[in-house]
Design a protein that fits this description.
Chain lengths: ~230, ~700
């Protein structure tokens, strides 16, 4: 599609997102640090690679979710010269679908039904799913396992976000905070967003494609634009 | 005049068709002594209910246009805006919702929450309109208020709480038990106008106690005082409960449910009490104006009668009294004889007669304060215009009016219809800025255009009913556009020698896509190769060419024309010659500039039960739609999509049959987008064929 430069220059390439299709990822942070922004950038990267993405937004409106994409796309267009921006915007709209649920209506059977509606009628065949706003605090291990199994059966790459809380100090052996400290082994990649003293937000990669690591990868999130940056 | 805004209520009555809305309004007007006899909607006396003032409405027993009417109940001024109950008229509904502060949502005790109630309720949520639910027709066979309350919770997600229970149902319906005062209320007299308060019948005592507990539990969430009183088992006063319910209602987190039967004159007076007690007064609601001097910045209106006037004209009516303009004031005072300014046109106008309206009668008044709804006589304006007192330049609605996307040729059947038709068109275009009309000079047909199929149908129907203008209509036409995709040079010489003085002009330059607007003309001529006086001729020639593209004859937009070269002849050059040269140059450039066809894309939202989501998405997908997203809330789903308008004809029928009539859709213009190649080829072929035949 001619958007390879955008993919190749994306700082997120460290995460090797183009690799496995069944990869399951998790982005964790306290409220307001940029989980949604990171998920949207992961989704856009996937779209630019030619994939179709379903963005599941729990407790948010379609309008707001769309606005995230529009904003981040604007930043990308400001930084990179793209010959026909309208075509890119249009292409992204066609490769993305937003599904929003009220907090208590999201479940594996619902998701399965919705995806089947889309796939069986050949309306939209996703390769990647991002799920923003799933409440890990209220889900037990078997629920998460069930969802994981379903996503694997659909051959979908998926990314979840989870909110950690300052007051909850529980942590898994690998260093993943609550509420995901008991399910973190189900994820192939786990990223923590950590605020630093100099007001930047560092990406700490706890696990990268199944390999535990504690080294920083030198990525941070610019708090003014919410864009991922190197260095 | 009363200036106590706490005692003003601007309310709407909204419901599914046939829930008895007009009957209820009629009863309200009777009990508030605005009318002295009750006429039924489909009554035998042939007079019809008072609110349905349009002939068409009387005939069908439905209400199309919102008329405003004023009444007074226990020292409160209530303005009732009668909102249409049918989905086809949602433009009217939304316009009415803008000016009201609270609403009564009527539901049929048998039909319950029907699809239209869902749509209307969602609109009310969008406009933050607090509401009281009234379960009507409790005298009907099959009445089941408890089920309706459950539906209010499940389908509308309202925190619905009964504040009354019925005494008997169906034909045994006698009255209601008020769960706040814990008294039975009976409605005596032929017209139910004598209220009799009694002890609660013994057999209902337990149920009443239980429901009162539910009510207090729900209400206590909004009042610490009530919560404490309940916890400490102190006396719970009526005032505490009323205050808590009011607070919950205003925050839209509680919906008190009342019941009765308007037709049988039961339950109306308590409903009016509830309007006074629970629905907001104008100062409880924040309304936003746009400052036109400041890039349409949003500013809340003050409601202060001492500030400069801000009033919105929300409806025009052409009745037996001449032109009436319904306005709602948001701040300041409007006085007879004063000069006000229409901020859209900048025109000053004098307030002649100022009236308060009952549906068929009116009362002359001297002034109207903020928050009031009144009407002006003989004022020249359009619906949606804002009036200010002169110090401000605010608007209550955005100045942006979308371009029509669909058009229809209409032809009057006879001479009489001809005259009436132009009268009607003149009126409608003033009422509704999105409805436009013009005469196509090539076919000599009158074309009307608007925002959708139904939009135009309503006006054609009104033309017939209100103005006696019978018209034949052509097939609806989508307003396609043409534009270019790349830079192209042109250099064209127009030369003609046919005896007498000839014509000569040469125009050179380029055209390129222009995204910021429809058309731009840039003059880069140096050294007078085209004389100054002929530059506007070039501009004119280009603009004339843009009226009709060469692909399918659609209007061309989004082009920047730059001229930088040319030549002239001292004798043979003229305005006409350069216009012709510019037209030729345009043709030459256009062919090289990669012209494409654009079509209107509509933002469509289909709302319905979740079980039909798959079918709905399938139907949208088949119609070249792009599904943007879905939203699920309980068992209720909204599918948002971007759809080509040309594919939406007849969609309401398809949707109805797909979903057993349980889903509905709304549609608004979003943008113009290029049509896919295969569609473009068909369109071009059809245009060529038509040209050959023509």
């Amino acid at each position: 599609m001619g958007y390879e430069p955008l993919v190749n220059q994306n700082p997120l390439r460290v995460l090797n997102l183009g690799r496995g299709s069944k990869q399951l990822g998790l982005v964790m942070a306290r409220a307001g640090l940029g989980k949604t922004a990171l998920l949207v950038q992961i989704a856009l990267d996937s779209i630019l690679r030619g994939n179709r993405v379903i963005h599941v937004s729990i407790g948010e409106s379609i309008e707001k979710t769309k606005a995230w994409y529009d904003d981040i796309l604007q930043f990308i267009l400001q930084e990179h010269s793209v010959s026909r921006p309208h075509e890119l915007i249009d292409m992204i709209a066609r490769h993305r679908m937003i599904m929003t649920f009220k907090e208590d209506t999201f479940s594996r059977p619902r998701l399965e039904e919705r995806l089947n509606d889309l796939i069986l009628q050949d309306i939209f065949r996703p390769n990647c799913l991002v799920v923003d706003g799933f409440d890990f605090g209220r889900a037990d291990r078997s629920t998460v396992e069930d969802i994981k199994e379903f996503l694997e059966s659909m051959n979908l790459q998926a990314w979840f976000s989870a909110t950690s809380h300052r007051t909850d100090n529980r942590v898994s052996p690998a260093g993943v905070p609550a509420p995901c400290h008991e399910v973190d082994d189900l994820f192939d990649t786990v990223i923590l967003l950590k605020p630093e003293k100099d007001a930047t937000i560092q990406l700490e990669i706890i696990r990268n494609n199944g390999i535990d690591s504690d080294a920083g990868i030198g990525l941070n999130l610019d708090p003014s634009t919410m864009m991922i940056k190197e260095g | 005049m009363k200036q106590d805004l706490d005692r003003v209520r601007n309310i709407g009555i909204s419901a599914h068709i046939d829930s008895g809305k007009t009957t209820l309004t009629e009863r309200i007007l009777y009990y508030t002594q605005r009318i002295h006899a009750i006429h039924e909607v489909r009554g035998k006396d042939g007079v019809g209910a008072t609110m349905d003032s349009m002939e068409l409405e009387k005939e069908r027993g439905i209400t199309i246009q919102s008329a405003a009417t004023f009444c007074n109940w226990k020292d409160h001024d209530i303005n009732i805006i009668d909102t249409p109950g049918h989905v086809d008229f949602t433009v009217e509904v939304e316009r009415a919702l803008r000016v009201l502060d609270g609403a009564i949502l009527i539901l049929c005790s048998v039909g319950g929450v029907q699809s239209q109630s869902i749509t209307v309720d969602r609109q009310m949520t969008r406009y933050n309109v607090p509401r009281i639910a009234f379960i009507n027709k409790c005298d009907r066979t099959g009445a089941n208020p408890a089920r309706v309350v459950q539906q209010l919770r499940d389908k509308l997600n309202l925190n619905a709480v009964m504040i009354q229970i019925p005494i008997g149902l169906e034909s045994d319906m006698e009255g209601v038990v008020d769960l706040i005062t814990m008294k039975a209320i009976y409605f005596d007299g032929d017209q139910g106008d004598q209220l009799r308060f009694e002890e609660i019948p013994a057999e209902l005592q337990d149920e009443a106690e239980e429901k009162r507990e539910e009510l207090l539990d729900a209400a206590s969430m909004f009042s610490d005082e009530l919560m404490e009183a309940m916890l400490e088992e102190q006396e719970v006063t009526e005032e505490m409960v009323h205050a808590a319910i009011r607070k919950g209602t205003l925050s839209l987190e509680l919906a008190p449910v009342m019941l009765g039967s308007a037709y049988k004159n039961k339950g109306i007076q308590p409903l009016l009490d509830a309007v006074n007690m629970y629905l907001p007064c104008p100062t409880d609601v924040e309304n936003i104006a746009l400052d036109l001097d400041n890039d349409e910045t949003e500013i809340p209106v003050s409601n202060n009668p001492d500030d400069d006037l801000v009033a919105l004209a929300f409806k025009l009516e052409d009745g037996r009294y001449g032109q009436l303009t319904y306005i709602r004031t948001y701040q300041g005072v409007i006085r007879k004889g004063e000069t006000i300014i229409n901020t859209r046109t900048g025109k000053k106008l004098k307030v002649g007669r100022l009236v308060r309206l009952h549906a068929d009668e009116m009362e002359e008044i001297e002034e109207a304060g903020s928050g009031d709804i009144v009407a002006l006589f003989g004022v020249d304006c359009a619906s949606g215009d804002t009036f200010c007192g002169g110090k401000l330049n605010w608007s209550m609605s955005s100045m942006h009016v979308p371009e029509p996307v669909i058009s229809l040729a209409i032809r009057p059947v006879d001479n009489k219809a001809q005259g009436n038709m132009s009268k009607a068109l003149n009126r409608f275009t003033k009422e509704d800025p999105t409805f436009k009309t013009f005469v196509d000079h090539e076919t000599n047909e009158t074309i009307v255009s608007g925002m959708g199929e139904l939009h135009l149908e309503v006006y054609i129907e009104r033309m017939k009913r209100e103005y006696g203008a019978e018209v034949e209509i052509g097939a609806p036409q989508v307003a396609y556009r043409e534009t270019i995709t790349r830079h192209a040079d042109f250099n064209y010489t127009h030369k003609k020698q046919t005896g007498g003085s000839g014509q000569f002009g040469r125009v050179g330059g380029y055209m390129e896509p222009f995204e910021e607007g429809e058309y731009e003309f840039v003059d880069e001529i140096v050294g007078g190769v085209i004389p100054r006086e002929y530059i506007p001729s070039c501009d004119k020639g280009f603009q004339a060419s843009m009226k009709k593209g060469t692909l399918i004859g659609a209007a061309i937009t989004g082009i920047k024309m730059v001229i930088n070269d040319g030549s002239f002849h001292a004798v043979d050059s003229s305005d006409m010659a350069f216009q012709q040269a510019a037209k030729g140059a345009f043709r030459e450039g256009y062919a090289k500039a990669g012209p494409i066809i654009m079509e209107p894309i509509m933002k469509v939202a289909v709302e319905g039960p979740s079980e039909f989501q798959g079918a709905v998405m399938g139907s949208l997908n088949q119609r070249r739609g792009m599904i943007v997203g879905t939203f699920e809330e309980g068992n209720y789903t909204v599918v948002e999509a971007e759809m080509p308008l040309s594919e939406m004809f007849g969609y309401s029928t398809t949707l109805r049959s797909l979903t057993q009539g349980k889903a509905e859709f709304t549609m608004e213009f979003s943008s113009y987008k290029q049509v896919p190649k295969s569609v473009a080829e068909d369109l071009i072929k059809a245009y060529q064929d038509e040209k050959k035949e023509g």
